[in-house]
Design a protein that fits this description.
By secondary structure, the chain is of the alpha+beta class. Helices cover 32% and strands 20% of the residues. It has helices at 23-28, 72-80, 105-110, 118-130, 183-196, 239-242, 247-270, 282-286, 308-321, 343-353, 357-366, 369-373, 376-383, 499-524, 527-531, 534-545; strands at residues 9-11, 13-18, 34-39, 45-50, 57-62, 64-66, 93-99, 136-145, 148-151, 159-164, 170-173, 178-179, 199-200, 208-209, 212-220, 225-232, 296-303, 325-327, 386-387, 393-396, 402-406, 414-415. The chain starts with 8 loop residues before the first strand and ends with a helix.
């Protein structure tokens, strides 16, 4: 049961099978359109396709050739049996039959009771290898019909979803896996799925498969899991010959579309294009591991011996598939590398190579132990620990460095813990600095509900009562709100205040007055009134910028 070591990469192996003549074809056939021309060292063969009615002929090189006299069991012994032991080591494998409609694909995969096909032979071999071991065998059977996947082992047709796992591998969500312990159990389960598969009569085939069918055999050991996929593809159809109509025509279009997507994937892989169009079809998504992926693959090209044009199309695609290389990997869990990469050192080295000294300094601050313990929000709170409440200026952080411009400076600082009580007069920390008079209105709205306002009013310039100078008799500056046109005139004399200072104070108070009125309006306005504020908002922004 132990498998020999497999190479890290291996191309898709392509073999050709020519089915025998049917009774209706044997009478009129002048001979098969395909034949073996010669063999080469290493097991390769050259196949010649020749038109029976013209002088056209073409030659292709493949891996193996099985003529009309060959049996399916010979294909299994030479091609399929060799990939089965590797699945016990966690290396996945795929065997799929490709060809035109009526070329013998379903017969090759299913066979008959007397002459079993590749699927029964593969299951029998897997079960025999598991005898006397702790290995378990499970099977799933599903079809791709009209670009949708359906589980054939479920009593009711249920669509299953093709998704990618965290490692990028295809997983079919909702697919049932049934344990199998004997060949009899397998035949009982498999026969039910075969009956549920979509088949129909066409002009070229009495029992034509209308979907791609996939049987998966999963082997689980104590260490790894391996899987063998056996795929019976629906054949491409020429609707001029099949005379399909209605639903048969729709099925044929979907089948041809998926096989055309398969051809595009093979062409892209051969040209080593950066993007492989696996997602153009559900079929190519299923075959992604088998074509350029991490699975061993065997392609069996089935030919109708009397259809030259169909044979050319099939063999040309098969010959191109030989150049597709798969990279096998065991399904066993890889060990996590013990060496940890210091990304900080690598990033710093890269920045130094680019001469980004400022970025290095910023990175040093962000990656310092103190910075790692202090979130960004906390650092923002530190910068906002003290608030200024008068004139324009630049705020200084606790270390004395400039941080940013703020709208209002204050002659006094209010501790952060007292911010929520800034409206009370006795909690304002006073200083000796002279404050210019404020004319900002700050009337309380008695009609405001107990609910919190959507917009908080801008705090006006305030000065405590004990800071009033002796010459304030004509114009008293207090915490009482005043309007720009109030009884107190700004021309009142203040010692040491120039006319320019008076003008700036008036302009600042006017701005605050307009802003305060604007915010009060926003708090109580209805929807219609708010929609009419476009011009007013623009005017307010202009005043603010001035």
């Amino acid at each position: 049961m132990a498998a020999t070591a497999s190479p890290a990469s291996q191309p898709v192996r392509v073999v050709l099978r020519v089915r025998p003549f049917l009774p209706s074809e044997a009478i009129s056939a002048a001979g098969p359109c395909v034949g073996l021309l010669g063999s080469h060292p290493g097991g390769e063969v050259t196949v010649q396709l020749k038109d029976q009615y013209t002088s056209r002929n073409e030659c292709y090189r493949l891996d193996a050739f099985f003529g009309q006299e060959s049996r399916v069991s010979e294909i299994f012994d030479q091609e399929v049996c060799t990939v089965i032991p590797a699945i016990f080591d966690g290396i996945n494998a795929t065997v799929f039959a490709y060809g035109a409609t009526g070329s013998g694909k379903t017969y090759t995969m299913q066979g008959t009771e007397d002459l079993p096909g590749l699927i029964p032979l593969a299951v029998s071999t897997v079960l025999a290898l598991c005898t006397g071991t702790w290995c378990s065998v499970e099977i799933s059977y599903y079809e791709v019909y009209m670009e949708k996947c359906y589980d054939l082992l479920e009593p009711k047709a249920r669509e299953i979803m093709a998704l990618d796992d965290k490692d990028g591998n295809l997983q079919l969500k909702g697919l049932a896996w049934v344990p199998v312990r004997s060949l009899e159990e397998f035949h009982e389960i498999y026969s039910i799925g075969v009956q549920r598969r979509k088949v129909a009569h066409t002009g070229l085939n009495d029992v034509s498969s209308r979907s791609h069918a996939v049987l998966s055999i999963r082997v689980s050991t104590d260490v790894v899991k391996g899987k063998l996929n056996l795929i019976d593809l629906a054949g491409n159809e020429d609707n001029r010959r099949t005379c399909n109509e209605g639903i048969r025509l729709q099925e044929s279009a979907k089948i041809n579309q998926s096989l055309f997507a398969l051809s595009n994937v093979i062409s892209a892989l051969n040209k080593k294009e950066p993007r492989i169009p696996y997602r153009e079809s559900k079929l190519t998504r299923i075959l992604q591991d088998s074509l350029g992926g991490n699975s061993r693959a065997v392609m069996i090209a089935c030919l109708n011996p009397v259809e030259y044009q169909e044979a050319v199309h099939t063999v040309s695609l098969a010959a191109r598939s030989r150049h597709v290389v798969n990279h096998m990997s065991s399904a066993s869990k890889q060990e996590t590398p013990k060496d940890k990469v210091n990304m900080e050192v690598k990033l710093r080295a890269w920045l130094e190579s680019k001469g980004k000294t400022k970025s290095i300094q910023r990175m040093g601050g962000l990656l310092s132990p103190n910075a790692s313990k202090t979130p960004l929000s906390m650092s923002h709170r530190k910068q906002s620990a003290s608030v200024r409440v008068s004139g324009r200026g630049k705020a200084m952080d606790q270390d004395g460095g400039k941080i940013k411009k703020v709208l209002f400076d204050s002659a006094c600082r209010i501790p952060a813990e007292n911010l929520h009580r800034v409206g009370t007069q006795d909690e304002v920390n006073t200083t000796k600095k002279v404050v210019l008079p404020s004319l900002t209105p700050c009337k309380e709205d008695k009609t405001v509900s107990s609910l919190r306002k959507a917009l908080s009013p801008i705090s006006s310039n305030m000065a405590p009562q004990n800071q009033q100078s002796a010459d304030d008799s004509n114009c008293v500056f207090s915490l009482e709100p005043k309007t720009p046109m109030g009884s107190c005139n700004i021309v009142g004399k203040v010692a040491g205040v120039t006319p320019l200072d008076k003008f700036n104070a008036m302009g600042s108070s006017l701005k605050e007055s307009l802003i305060q009125q604007y915010l009060d309006f926003l708090n109580v306005a209805n929807k219609e009134e708010l929609q009419k504020l476009k011009v007013c908002s623009l005017l307010l922004i202009i005043i603010w910028l001035i």
